[in-house]
Amino acid sequence: MSETGRATSTGQVVHNALDRYFEEIRAAARKVGAERDTEPVIPLELAGKHPSFAAFTEVTDIGLTQVEPRTHILDLMRNPGARTTKTMASLLMIARAAAHIRRTGERVLLFTPTSGNKGTALRDAVARAYATGLASPDELRIVMLAPDASRSKLRDCALTGDRALRTANPVVVAHVEQPADVKLLSSEVVERHAAEILDTTGFRIWYTLDLDNYRIADAARAFAEAELLPITADSAPRVHVHAVSSAFGLLGYHLGHRLLTEGLPGRDAPARHPGFHLVQQLATADMVTSLLGMKVPDYEHDEAAGVWRQHVAPQFPAVTDHPQEVIDATFYTKQPPTRAQINEIVARHGGGGIVVSRRECLERYDRVRALAAVAGIEIAADPALIREWSLVKALTGVLVSRERGLLSPDTDVVVHGSGYYSDELLPALREEHLTRVGTAKDLARAVLAAAHA
After folding, report:
1. Contact 376, 411 (CB under 8 A)
2. What is the DSSP code (8-state) at residue 269?
3. What percent of the chain clears pLDDT 90, i.e. is strictly above it?
4. Taking the alpha carbons of 36, 39, 40, 44 in that order, is the dihedral positive or negative?
């Protein structure tokens, strides 16, 4: 394995997708902005390219590899500092923050509640802004808030190597009843203290919880597909498979496909829209249950084997260690607001969904590793080392869906490789570099300290 954890890939690559598709992404931002009912907290419009933009975004390669007949992996994990698809949206947000700083003279403090990956990618983007001269620590900072359930997801980065940078860019871990409660905690602090922080420090708080930040960036997936594997009138039926929490990535792809269909300069329109096939875990299966119009089936406990079983619905695990199993803490969203949008797209263009268990992932683990290796992605031999399961879950979902006839054998599948890492590939954040809080008052103290550092 190489130092970056990536073997040699025989697939195709779009190098620096954000730079290559800059004008297309600007068009996506304009369309989304025109269709919004409310003003975004973070402006969506992209300014012209800064001289450092290409260097800043050079980690946004997108790969596409056929890993077996009828199956491709769209590799969105090529940034060694984050290893998830959150990189693109994070870099765009930081680029817009830097443009805002230059235009207004205001300083910007990003505040992001996260289950892990989003915050890691944003911190990596801030570090890249410092390294490439897009912004300085005096102008741009970030406070990341994660639930204690996500402790294993927290990754190290260049912002932790210096005491001053750690103070100005803290990683805060909150003890909360439910992981999603970090959103309530952070919004309370922003509401109470944003004006005070602006008045006393000149830092304007940019709160990152806005679907459109991600939808705009993820439109690049459709642009890459149109370039590397276009859908023509002669193409076989195609389905995109994605391990999802709220399916922001698929909605971004849909936005990009829509722009291509309506016409973009120099880009051919796809002949049709692919179907979407969603993969989820039992603890947070609301996208799949909404899509299928059914609830999670009742499981019976097999005491002798120490497992839970059901034989009613092929879209759900036949065997699991627990009916509310959590494979990955990143996927923590229950009843996501994006359900209706995804249901409408699937009703129009086809697709479906499946829920997988850890046991199913482990039973097919060797096969998953072999498929990923063809795309140049080396998955750890020991699954206990995995900290991000998205790719493993998605590939398992494909294999199980084909076994059970949920995916037609004559359908081409594009698997969105949206995340994979281990501690070996992306080192864990050390405990002494965390700030732990239990109340909104504690959190406010940490945010104020970051602004005043």
Report:
1. no
2. P
3. 87
4. positive
Q: Is the pLDDT of residue 335 over 90?
A: no
Give residues with Cβ within 8 angstroms of 58, minimum separation 6: 16, 19
Q: Using DSSP, state whether 40 is helix, strand or coil.
A: coil
This prediction has a pTM of: 0.94
Which residue(s) pair with 63 in the sheet?
13, 75
Which residues, including other chains, have CB under 8 Å from residue 14's CB and lie 6 or more apart? 20, 21, 61, 62, 63, 224, 227, 228
Q: How many domains does the chain have?
A: 1
Q: Residue 364 pairs with which residues in a beta bridge?
A: none
> Strand pairing partners for 309?
300, 319
Mean pLDDT across 227-252: 96
Is 117 inside a domain boundary? no
Q: How confident is the model at residue 177 (pLDDT cuts 50, 70, 90)?
A: confident
Mean pLDDT of 49-74: 97
Residue with tokens 């210096």: 162
* CATH code for the domain in which residue 351 is found: 3.40.50.1100
Residue 31 lies in a domain: no
Q: How far are the Cα atoms of 290, 291, 404 from residue 294, in angstroms, in the given order?
A: 7, 8, 18
Q: Rounded to whole angstroms, what are the CA distances from 39 to 192, 211, 214?
A: 20, 13, 16
List the one residue out of 303, 100, 112 whose CA is nearest residue 204.
100
The verdict on residue 449 lying in a domain is no
Among 290, 284, 279, smallest CA distance to 249 is for: 279
Q: How many CA atoms lie within 13 A of 49 on its CB side?
A: 14
Q: Closest by alpha carbon to 147, among 184, 96, 191, 121?
A: 184
Task: Give strand pairing partners of 14.
Answer: 62
**Which residue in the block uniquely carries the two structure tokens 């249950």?**
289
Sign of CA dihedral 312, 316, 320, 322: negative
Nearest to 93 by CA among 222, 209, 201: 209
Helix axes 248-262, 22-35, angle to 10 degrees: 100
Tell me how far apart the alpha carbons of residues 450 and 168 are, in angstroms, rounded to a whole number: 4
Residue 292 covered by a domain: yes
Query: Which residue range is the domain that position 283 belongs to?
Result: 213-422
How far CA 400 is from CA of 239, 365, 367, 369, 426, in Å, comes to 15, 12, 12, 15, 29
**Pairwise CA distance, residues 443 & 453, whole Å:** 15
